[in-house]
Amino acid sequence: MADNFNESPKNWTESQVSTWLRSIGVKEPYVEKLSEEEVDGQVLLTLDEDFLKSKICMKSGPAHLIIQKRDELINSKQRVQEKKKATTGKTNELEKNNQKSAQCLSTVTEGPSVQSPVKGRDVCEEKQPAHDDCKPRPFDQEGIDFIYIKHNVLQPESGAFNLISPCHEYKSFAIAAALDHTRLQVKFAREVLKFAAGCMNIRSNGTIHFGVMDSKGDAGYVHGEVIGIPVEEKDIYVDALDYIERSFSSDKEHVRQCVRPPRFIEVMDRKSTEKTFVIEVDIVPLINIVKNKVYAVRLPNFKESTNKIEFEKETILRRVGSKTEPVIDKDLSEFYQRVKDRDAQREEAEKSQFLCAPENCQDLGRKLTMLMTSGKKFIEKEKWFILVTNKIKPDDLCNIDWLLNTNLFCVFDFDPDSKVSGLCSTYVQHHAANMHFLQSYRISSGMSIKEFTANLHLFDQTSWIFCNGRSDFKGNETPCDEMTWIKTKMTLLRESVSLICKQILPKGTFQVIFLLTSPVEKPLLHTFYEFFTDMEGHEDIICICESETNFQKWQSFAEGSCGKESVNNCSVVGMKMSHINSTLQRVQHAKICAKHLPVFVKGTCLLETHVEEQMCSLEILTVDHCDETSKDVIDEEKEKIEQHFYQGGRVTWLNFWLAEHKYVGKVIERDAYHDASQLLNDALKHNADQIPVHRINIYHHPGSGGSTVARQVLWNNRKDLRCAVVKPSYSVAVVAQHAIQLREYEEKDHQRCLPVLLLMEDSDKEYLEDLRNELEVAINIKQIQIGTLCFILLSCRRSHDPERKCKESPLQNVSVTHKLSAQEKRSFAGKRQVLEERYEPEFILTFVLMSEGFNVDYVRQFVKHLLQDIERRSVTTRLIHYVALLNTYVQNSFISQSHCEALLALTIHLEKVHKQVFERSLSDQAKLVFLHLKDDRTHIDSVRIIHPLVAKEILQQLMGPRQTHSSLAMDLLCQDVLFEHRFGRDDYLSFLRQLFIRRSRISKGDKYDSLFSPLIEHVRDNEESPDKAIELLKEAFQRFHQDPFFAQQLARLHYTYEKFEDAKLWAETAVKLLPNNSYILDTKGQVYRKWFQAKCKAFDHDNISKTAQTTADAVETALKALECFQECERAAEAEMENVNCSGFFSEVEVGCSLLKLISSLQVFAKGTSGHSECMKYLLTNYIPEEIEDVWEPFHGRLKKLHKTMQDALEWISEDLSYFQTDIDADEEETPESPEEKIGHPLTWLAKKFSDYGKYFGEAHSSLLRRGQPVPANLTPFQKRMIIYNLGGGNITSIFSKLTDQKDAVRLLEKILSLYPSNPIKARFGQRDIVNYIVAHISLNCLSPQNLKVAPLKELQTLGHQFPSDKRKCLPSALFLLTLLFWPEDHDTDQEKETKYEIVQSAVEHLDKGYWTKMKDIPQRKRRIYTHFFLGNGNGLDKFVHKRKFEKVTKGFSVSEKRMKWFSGEAWKMPEIAEMLKLVSGWTEDRVVYLEGPQKKKFSILPLYVPSVPHSNENVSFYLGFTFRGPVACNIVVKK
Description:
Number of strands: 35
Shape: elongated
Strand content: 5-15%
Strand order of the largest sheet: 13-14-12-11-15-16-17
Largest sheet: 7 strands, parallel
Distance between the termini: 91 Å
């Protein structure tokens, strides 16, 4: 390579630029990045420092180095050129003079040195810095498909050797090729006949080549370099040989027989689309033709002066060395005398060529096996294969079993008919495949590799890429010829191959097979070159070709890239497809074997492979799972499989299969397995009240074997149920679709199918609920009979307190802990004894630790012993430390092996040590603590520490004296080679991001809820000041390209430590980057809120008197906080997929604090009069003199405070009226969650409304609370504020009195006493009417005989005062209309009809409001709340509040209550049934209708959709009242 640096940098390839960058000391990640950006020599010359820093993200140092070294290189080249010019000036001058004098084409004397490059191109531009040797086309063979590579070099011109081996002569022919027909033919015939006569006269075979450089005098080219010439009409060259008849006076026929017709060998140029050829003419002077003959020739010549063709005098020519020369007169006699000798030599040579011993036959079977297995005994089960192929013969399609059994990642198919009659048509009969084109592999900007692979389903089903059109496709994808393909598809191919090799599949995880079954064309050759370049070598490329003829062209091209020996070593040529098929099936892990599923009638059915692959979101467990495993594989790998499991690897189906068939010991069945099995058996028992989707939860300590228990349940039920594991990367809609398909597959009756047992590992509760909901919807659509169990969701989730979870719901939850029961201890002790007889304890570490119950002291001693002799400064130890850090703080984290190799290779490169195999480069300690994982989908290797507890201990014990968690995290963050590494990048960056951002959540299985990520929490608590944590997050913010969520975390961290100026700066940065995110706007508001709180505390702490001047700054801060929260509210309203109420809650909190501050000012703190002064200021245009100037900027906003606070409180009240507040749904990803969550919103709302009323109600509310009478002179506003203070200000607070307060009756009576004695004439506002009616309904529920409760008629009259235009009604007003006007049994038909019309009109508008409120949020996340049920009483007594049910169900836990309501069991309890009124109706097309209304059918929403019968039936049900309208509960078909 060093030699190549002598060439002009302008002509360097990307590879040469990379080598030069390494030679000047540029780090490998930057080299790779520049290579990805396709920086070749030309681009290198245009680079500047700004480009390197902005586009390549390069630091200033290396960017400056590259530009400086580049400029030095250019300057040195220029100096060399100037020196050359000085020494060769005279020669150049002479050449110029010669060119001027050469006016015509020399014919007689033209030597090989006067030709120049094609079409006068700049020689330097065409010159390639590297020249690879190549072989000439096989001599005189018909049907050879051969190709030359431009700039490759043939062996030097040669003379006669053994008469059979041809001598060679080269002609560049560059100028001649551009001549007119006549001149061209004369020139061509002259050279051919001169060479032919020379060869025939000495009886030697020979080939003359046109388009090959014939002299070192051709500037910029080397002797024998293949250049090629353009050929417009091949006939011109063929017809040129007609000069034979005019050039030879005798034996013309002999010459015709010896001179073969011209052959046109295409020249491939990767940088050009122009078609050029080398023209070759073979001379074969067979003895039976030339015997006793001497040939004299008259060479043709075009005379420019006469413009005519002339023939020279007859001359006898012969080959002398590498030249053709005339036999001079004095040698003629001897030349004739030796004719017989030459004939004898020729005759002997011709005989001997047929007597050569046959070549030894290669062991092609072994060669093929070794190439496919990479030298192992079997083809690796997890290895991906990429197939590149052209048209396959129909006869060969019956011999592709080996391909069907191969793990095909994708196929580059150059056969346009493949889908109709080729390989693809056969393949899709057995496997699922996705049809793609090259353009499908264009990744759009902003899309991650993970998203791209998921979008194309790359790791689930084979991607079939039609590279040259598809004949059956109706879109615009037609096949094209070679040159058109190069112009239109070449770039797409390059991008596709680069994407796969450089970003999707790491080196070593895949092999490329070129299966050449038809003549090879250029596009296929280009494909080889792209793979060879992007894979950085040929080690993982295999060529399989039955026909040696087809192989020739391939070989000649491939040798130009990787040499003759390499091509031969990676090619299997001459083996029939049937032999290939048979040979490879012997070394495949598993044979093609039928798979079966259990069926309802207790038999089994065949599961077709392509059907299984179509259900790609499920890993289906079949009855005969793993039965296809060959005996040889079992014998070879059973110990390795068992050891990997007991070392800490996740259990595989093969572990269970080997144990079941007694190849290895039994897998221990823990107590939790028996508990889960019992719950499953109970669920399977037939029950008329059975819900269609049942759920069992396994909660486990991290690393305690929960996944093993769950998979054991599946394995042992696979013959009785249809079992599958859900792949978490798929949406619930896709999973539900595939689960339904699995349930119904090959079953006759959809009502009679086996239940499907679905395992979900580490899925959050939201995903589980969504899946259950999707499955229920699908079951309803399919009208499965009620009471049929269709699916059992087995959820396996980590938890730091599994036993508490189990106690909460013993009928649904199972716990797996590190602690072993007495029975388990006995089982583990016995198993450990057996295992230790076969394995060293360090090779079954996790099992040993588990058998010790993960005792803390035992783990500590084990790690201490392990790290005793570790080389603390080695790169391997650093790798262990990094992995331990991630495994400690980020659950289920790992580092890809590719990342590890990158880190180790960097050191290896610097130490100038050759890169070794990954495992060999690890220290002994790393080999023990690293567990090697393989991704189920991608098969990409990764490592983690054998157990989280071990990782935590290693992290601590490896710490140096000055090392901290923050310094280690900073090292990891700044580790460029890991951060920039391409493969597995999405996962790595995701884990790194979680390390700094993801907060702990009990709901996610963590130990506690945290304010920051566990790492940041640790750094805050253990490293004295927050500075280290701030430094970490600042660096992360920059590393993650200024991610706004890191800026948000920095704002939170700063305000936590009261660094408010910095917090403000970071919050504004986050908002600038993501201006419409309600959560980030909330954080900005929290900065000002905390700042305001700190300023308020300072008044008390520093004894500062509160005046207008001293408080102005605090008031301004509070008002800024309110502005931010109002922005947050507006953003939250616009977000269709999120519910973020935090802005409303925070606005009220800050408003209350601000009111408290204002009322404590000296001017407003003078008892009752001061408070009156304060209210006067806030509610009227009045401004006290003391604050007029100082607070001048605030007056307008402060006077609106009471209104904005009331609006926020009303919004919260309305929201809480719609939806249940006790839904324990998991939160979103941590950046997308509110700053401060309100724990008990109903209690909070009641308190805040009360506080609000207290501030604006002066001192009267406290008098009322003490039992004193209400002053007569109160204004309506003051009365309203007192009502607010007493808890009567909104529907939610009033209803909450039904459950929360003991003195609720007294308070409600006082609230009602504040309203006018004749409310109908008072003309209330809409909110006042709502609050008044709700207070009466609530009082009646608590004290049914209370005389202060107004009769229903009076309340109905008030209800008529609501706006007649229902669009203007508040949702609470519409809700009350459905209650007040629900018909009574004693009403006349006319009265009932009138009331129904009012109710139906209200329901119609309620439903519209409900959908506005719901946005695009799943219903299960915002479940509608039922406030009342229709009871058996009359008047207000007919409304039964949910509170009454609590007395009946108070003995149950929260989750058990939910289960009873959810399953419908609670409705059957006699105490509840007595309270409620059963109403009648019917169902029609799955819609429930109420019996009663005559004019218009009244549809009632079912509270639980699956309870609606599929057929049209008469039904009965209970009625509930919600803010969406009446709902039907416990729907039962009437007998």
